[in-house]
Amino acid sequence: MNRLTRLMFAAAAVALSAGAAAAQTTVKWLHIEVNPQQVKIWEEVARAFEAKNPGVKVEMQFLENEAYKAKAPTLLQSKDRPHIIYSWAGGVLQSQVEAGVIEDITEPMKGYVDTLTPAAVDAFKVNGRNYGIPIAMSQVGFMYNKELMAKAGVDPSKIKTWDDFLGAVKTIKAAGITPIIAGGADKWPLHFYWTMLAVRVGGKAGIEQAMKGENGGFESDVYVKSGELYKQLVDLQPFQNGFLGAKNPQAVGAFGDGKGAMILAISSFYHTQKALAADKVGLTDDKVGWFEFPQVPGGKGDANDTLGGITGWLVTKGSPKEAVEFLKFFVSKDVQSRLAAGNYIIPVSKGAEEGIVSPFMKNIAANLAKSKYHQNFYDQALGPNVGRVINDASAEIAGGSMTPKQAAKAVNDAWKQGN
Amino acid sequence: MVATALRSRRTDGQLPALLLFLPPALLLFTIFVVMPVGEAAWYSLFNWNGFGRPTNWIGLRNYFSVFETRAFGLALRNNGLIIVVSLLVQLPLALTLAIMLAEKFRGSVFLRMLFFMPYVLAEIATGLIFSFVYDGDYGLLAAIYRAFGAEAPHLLASADTSMAAVLVVVVWKYFGFHMMLFIAALQGMDRNLIEAARIDGATRVQQLRFVVIPLLYPTIRLSVFFAVVGSLQLFDLVMPLTRGGPADSSQTMVSFLYTHGVMRMRVGYGSAIGVILFVICVTVAFTYKRWFMRDE
Question: Residue A82 falls within a domain, yes or no?
């Protein structure tokens, strides 16, 4: 056999094997997770699924958070769209469903959704149909540095009301310690103050009425009052120097470095503060504590109401049925328990929270279980445009360039205009 | 009629070349320039988030709401500021350095390279580097302040100083480029003219004032043109530094388009900003070309 024939045989073999590979089903899975340990577990989940389902290949694709948000509309309308995509539910999900690019998975998920936390499942419903599967929940509250609080002589367990909280901030500041760290350049860490206060002041009815445009919509007393309470805090100058120029990872890292006493955090910051601290150790479990966002006397919200994220996966229109199968596998108790055991997430699969080891995350899971009204992050729930306006306005109140009234008006104007 | 036109002097003998070479260029230009611009103009008349087809026709309302947005005014002001600073600080600085470094002396090539270096650096990298320099806790600036026993300000975190901080970086980054333009022009200059002036008894200052700088006018006009166009395009330097904040204080037209249009998925609104920017650019370019660069 001369060299040319051998070469031709080789080429034919390659062509044949390529043909065989194309006959497989590939599930393209787009995620935005940056934590390598979590991605590693997902990777293993994908491989385990492939082992159980011969002929199916799960291909993971990554996009950075902001890049993903900006690219999503074009990406979803292309023929080469990924089959499984990341979602924060809320207004963005709504507009994606209206555009007809998301698969209705009510039928294939029937019965299956009962194994998941109802509040989380409901977040992915549009017009009563299931369009996605929740994977994790989080809660917003105050994380604190035990050593610094003790040094300032503040007992966090005694902070129950907003006035208690303001008092604590004054005490900490008087002790020469930075009371609060905030990543103001990213803006959304600041919107937690305003919107969490709105959860306390207005309760579930508050936002529902605002969305219907009743009582002046987002210019209602609920939002103006919340803004004013937030302004009371801002006026104490509680944040670190230059907080409006600090991005969230910097701020969380600074908290991990012990540069400030408190941070209004998403429960997942429990991990990120360790990863982002200068020494990569951050605050160990014995040094970091959590207290619930203070109550507002006279507020309509229930004391157990929570604000936080609900994230999940969506299946895009025209995806192979294996995509849904993979999601079922993904939210199964085994897989969720593994993720919970790593303390990465508060799982949405019932019973999987038993896998949580750390007392910190156990407490969050208990809070979420108690909560009757879990408000999705405002900047997600209200859609990309109004969400950004809320974030901007929150940062402007903090910077003193907008009054709470003006901020509420800006949000309401954006809401009336729509996304 | 057509035949006359074809036989006219202009195309005489060039017709085959025109027919051969014009269509591909015209096609590319149409597909990649004219159509996207037209499409943006069309989208700007809708309230549209990028999903599906635009259906919600709102006429010119996007334009009105752009003009009402405070950030638009700030962006416009900042673009103006960049032009002013380019003209009043960057250009004289570049010109002075160019006159000094156009001469051959030991180290002149090294200095030229050194000053040109920032221009070679990627914009994003420059922005990141300076965001560290400006950091009020760990940055170089903080270290300098501390050496004098003072508390460093967080320049990028205050609406009053953020744009000034960006402007410093703009000058730092681009003066080397303008300096190189001037050096090239100076080296291409007819030495005999300067020689003649010197023999006539002109002092060094007089030589510069009456011979060198007038001979540099074409280059100065070009440099100003680059500064103006660069100002209208400024984006990738601003994003890593401030993202246009705090409170939109350091927005440029393009970063305004990005943060208020793209990031909010307001395709119609963003397109309206794009169209306004396009009109500004075209007006500036044509006016400038007509008034100041007639001879080139």
Answer: yes
A181, A184, A186, A187: CA torsion to nearest 10: 120
Q: Show the low-confidence residues of chain A (pLDDT under 50).
A: 1, 14-22
How close A415 gets to chain B, by Cα (Å)? 13
CA angle A411/A218/A167 to nearest 5° reads 90
Decide: residue A206, CB within 10 A, 0-12 exposed, 13-18 middle, 19+ buried.
buried
Half-sphere exposure of B55 (CA within 13 A, CB side): 5
Contacts of A241 in chain B (CB under 8 A): 136-137, 151, 154, 157
CB-CB contact of A242 with A259 (8 Å): no
Residue A227, phi then psi, degrees to nearest 5: -60, -40
* CA B180 centroid distance within chain: 16
Residue A1 resides in a domain? no
User: Residues A117-151: pLDDT tens digits?
Assistant: 787 888 899 888 999 988 888 999 999 999 999 99
Q: Which domain holds residue A327?
A: 23-137+310-374
- How many residues in chain B? 296
Residues A242 and A324 in one domain: no
**Strand ranges for chain B from DSSP E:** none
Q: Domain containing B279 — which CATH number?
A: 1.10.3720.10
φ/ψ of A241, rounded to 5, equals -60, 135
Task: Out of A134-148, B12-26, B260-274, pick the least confident.
Answer: B12-26
- pTM over 0.80? The answer is yes
A237 in B contact zone (CB under 8 Å):
no
* A227 and A268 assigned to the same domain: yes
Among candidates B151, B242, B265 on the partner chain, residue whose Cβ is nearest the Cβ of A385:
B265
The DSSP code sequence of B97-123 is HHHHHSS--TTHHHHHHHHHHHHHS-H
Interface of B with A (CB under 8 A): 47, 49-52, 65, 134-137, 151, 153-159, 162, 242-243, 245-248, 259, 262-267
pLDDT value of residue A406: 93
Q: Write the CATH number for A322.
A: 3.40.190.10
Q: B108-120 and B162-187 helices cross at what angle (nearest 10)?
A: 130
Asked if the ipTM is above 0.95, the reply is no
Residues A75 and A36 in one domain: yes
A302: amino acid identity, one letter: D
Residue B207 within a domain: yes
Write out the residue range of the structural domain in which residue B73 sits: 61-119+162-292
Q: Do A96 and B51 touch (CB under 8 A)?
A: yes
Structural domain tally of chain A?
Answer: 2
Q: Among candidates A322, A165, A311, which has minimal Cα distance to A229?
A: A165
Q: How many domains does chain B contain in total?
A: 1
Mean pLDDT of all residues in B230-245 = 90
Lowest mean pLDDT segment, chosen from A13-17, B257-261, B282-286: A13-17
Residue B14 lies in a domain: no
B52 chain-A contacts, CB cut-off 8 A: 77, 98-100
Look up tokens 């800006």; give the residue: A410
CA neighbor of B254 nearest in space, from B109, B72, B116 = B72
* pLDDT tier at B295, thresholds 50, 70, 90: low
**Residue of A51, A90, A86, A96 lying closest to A65 (CA atoms):** A86
Q: Which of A85, A90, A122, A88 is nearest to A326 (CA)?
A: A85
Rounded to an integer, what is the distance from CA B16 to the centroid of its chain?
39
